[in-house]
Amino acid sequence: MNGVEDKKRKQRSDKKKDVKPYLTLETISSLNRLTYLTDVYLKDLAEEMILYAIKDYDTISQLSQYFKKEILINNTIYRGRIDNPQISKRENEDTDRISTRLKADDYEVIRALAYAMDVSRARVCALLIKASMNNINFVNNYVKQHLSKSLTPLQSFSCPLLTSTC
Question: 155: which of 20, 30, 60, 123 is 20 to 30 A away, CA to CA?
Answer without folding.
Answer: 30
